[in-house]
Amino acid sequence: MREPVRFGASKSKTMRALLAWVTASSLLAGCSSSFDATRDAQSAAAAQARWRSSVDAIGKPVSEADLSAWNIDVAPNGHGLPDGSGDVATGGRIFAAKCAACHGAKGEGLIGDQLIGGAGTLTTANPKRTVGSYWPYATTLFDYINRAMPYNAPQSLSADEVYALSAWILNRNGIVPDDARLDAHSLAAIRMPNRDGFVPDPRPGKL
Ligand code: HEC
């Protein structure tokens, strides 16, 4: 049988050794002269300058035109929506050609999400979170389609096409009438059914 290890004794020995080392090293640190500190700062600045010039040598400055191609965010209040417009009937034709294969002819969902229906289900045992039943802002629909759809060819649609698709999806969800034509102004003015269904999360640091 092995002797039980006596933690108490060996632990305090280790602590003493550690304390001696810490004291010794802080004394040594106190010895470094201000000359060394200046030299260290100078060589750090030189290294920083070398790094900066090597970075500056890569690529070319980004132009406003390059930036604007990426700057496509649409805010909930409609800020960032482009010029253009589209109506429900046109949207229906584009949907059949470019979206129905994945989302179903009526937006009922296939390999892509259900986009239409689900109204009134959020408080039931089987909630259906669709654009119509769940999304708080119609402007997000424009942003999402414009940015990410069709899934196989994102950012291939014109602003007019995205307005038309938004009009058709909102119409089939009973949110805009059959003769609706949407543009930056009218899209931002839409009040979605679940607009007040979200609350801010008060927990600090939580998403
Ligand atoms: C190749 C299949 C495919 C095609 C075509 C396609 N989608 Fe999608 N769509 C998807 C998938 C998959 C998702 C889910 C993506 C995810 O969650 O990351 C999606 C998500 C969406 C959503 C978000 C739904 C939600 O509730 O989160 C919208 C809106 C949408 N698509 C609209 C369209 C429109 C409009 C078109 C036609 C221009 C289109 N999609 C074409 C596959 C497709």
Q: Which helices and strands appear, and what pairs or packs with what?
A:
Blueprint: H1 7-31, H2 34-56, H3 64-70, E1 85-87, H4 88-98, H5 100-103, H6 138-148, H7 159-172, E2 181-183, H8 184-189
Which ions and ligands are bound to the chains?
A: heme C
User: Within the largest sheet, what's the order of strands?
Assistant: 1-2
Report the strand count. Answer: 2
Regions with pLDDT < 50 over 5+ consecutive residues? 4-10, 22-28
Secondary-structure content class: mainly alpha
**Strand residue content:** under 5%
What's the overall average pLDDT, rounded?
Answer: 87
- Give the second-level CATH assignment, the architecture of the domain at 84-189: Orthogonal Bundle
Specify Rg, calculated over alpha carbons.
Answer: 31 Å
Order of helices and strands: HHHEHHHHEH
CATH fold-type name of the domain at 84-189: Cytochrome Bc1 Complex, Chain D, domain 2
Q: What is the global morphology?
A: elongated
Helical residue percent band: 40-55%
Number of helices: 8
Characterize the biggest β-sheet: 2 strands, antiparallel
CATH superfamily of the domain at 84-189: Cytochrome c-like domain
Query: What is the CATH first-level class name of the domain at 84-189?
Result: Mainly Alpha
Alpha-carbon distance between the termini?
56 Å
